[in-house]
Amino acid sequence: MAQQQQLQLPKGMFGIIAIVIAGLVLVSKSAITIGSGEAGVLYKTFGGGVVTEEPALGEGFHLVMPWNKVFVYEVRQQELTEKMKVLSSNGLDIQLEASIWFKPQAISLGKLHQEKGQNYLERVLKPAIRSASRSVVGRYTPEQIYSSKRDAIQKEIFEETKLIVEDQYINLVEVLVRDVTLPPAIKNAIERKLGQEQESLEYEFRLVTAAKEAEKKIIEAKGKAEANRILSASLNDKILKDKGIEATLKLAQSPNAKVVVVGGKDGLPLILGNN
To answer: Domain 78-181 is of which CATH architecture?
Structure first.
């Protein structure tokens, strides 16, 4: 029976293998990849906590010490949709739905994480948009909110919200008022009123149009009457007789047979043709 040979590793190989394994574990614990539109906040466990004086970690691959942590934030433009119940200037309940476009300030991401945390939407942005919406809507009546002042309200909510969050490390891009829901009775009353106002405007327009047409006809009639008056004043008996004699002379020169009777009506000659 042949003696079985045992495989023996060179001295020191176990130590190398252990180092390689430890290195792989260390790399796996230390490697982090930041995705597109994201940034990372570094937390140094033994180095002062959240890093606020250095730029956030950008997109791509990074190596950090395994005892440190990285908190990843989305830094591209985001949308938050918020539904709120607010009061008009006369105390009526109004349902308001608004969309907020925002993004965190990448340059201040460390301070945002340190002071507000990853749930900064609940701590900062939502309270801000609610407060601004209640303040702005409370200055308008339901009719203004429903019809003519919607764009103005949207702009004012944006401006007031921006004032609140501008020192909270958040960039506010836009606020859009998507929907305004009034109590059904109020909505119906406003729609009836708007319909009546539209009918009244149309009626006034017809009256103005008719008045202008009547005025035009009066002016035309006065013009014709004045022209007739001037013409009548200029046609006296002498002019008419002269015109009659002139016409008679022209007819007398015509080769056609005719009879001229002198001493007709008003002293004008009468022309009697053979026909």
So the answer is: 2-Layer Sandwich (3.30)
